[in-house]
Amino acid sequence: MQPAASATSSRATCTLVVVTFNSASHLPRFLDSVPVALRDGHARVIVVDNGSTDGTVPLARAHPSVDLVEVGTNRGYAGGINVGRRHAAPRLPLVVANPDLRFHDGALDRMLEAVLAPGVGAVACRLVDDRGNTLPSLCREPTILRAIGDSLLGSSVKRRPAWSTEFIDDPRHYERDVDIDWATGAAWVVNPACDAQVGAWDESYFMFSEEVDYARRIRDAGYRVRYVADAVATHDEGGSGRNDDLRALLELNRVRYYRRHHNRVASAAFRIAVGLRGALRCWSRRDRRAALVALGASDPPQFSGADPIGAVLW
What we know:
Low-confidence stretches: 239-243, 287-295, 297-314
CATH class of the largest domain: Alpha Beta
Radius of gyration: 19 Å
Number of helices: 10
CATH architecture of the largest domain: Alpha-Beta Complex
């Protein structure tokens, strides 16, 4: 799986790892946005392909600035990042990104500047939709009260107190640079010293909650996770797919993450709080019914490594 070095490798100022799975419709626009976002340096772009069958591999292979690594099977987002890490220069900042992004002018320049500030371990950018509206992407550490608040109120009540929701949807929070608990993993830049200390991303999550886990490990190592408001990327939120199994996987991994850091009683309460959301909405949402069934199962569903939905190891 050793990639051939591209022409930019020797003069790179960062390594950019993009994990693809049937991403042919997004990858060209993503790659075209990188030079615009990085005007003060050069990125060594490593495309880690998780077994695409839609033409992603020929597109990546034909691009002059890409080093392609073909995994041959779907190892999930964290697994793809770890493959890319092994090919990255250890002394350079590491950018990890989804292919369904389009970076805006200077976005990576601003993120790279911020990640090298004292005490900063990782930086996330502002995500917007195709119309330029800011997408909620900043989050707080999961708690039982926040899970109950999100289950009862969902997205119907905006600007709730911090204790009552995990997700930050108040637009005012996105207007300034600030330290955060975690952000969605669509685009991060990791400080090389932090990357070396924290180590590999946890592949057991496959998809969803791997960024929550990684951000917690960054904070536990004494670093800060930073949000940079004027580093912007357009995000196609449907790029990772949408189906019932993905919803079930998202909810299961939330519970698994919480369980790793709390006792059995608290973890059981958190599981009930998360399941409450599906119970309240299962009459109208098939994906919520699937998540509720998965959370209530005594033997939660297992997913094989070859399955794009992921591997849930309860």
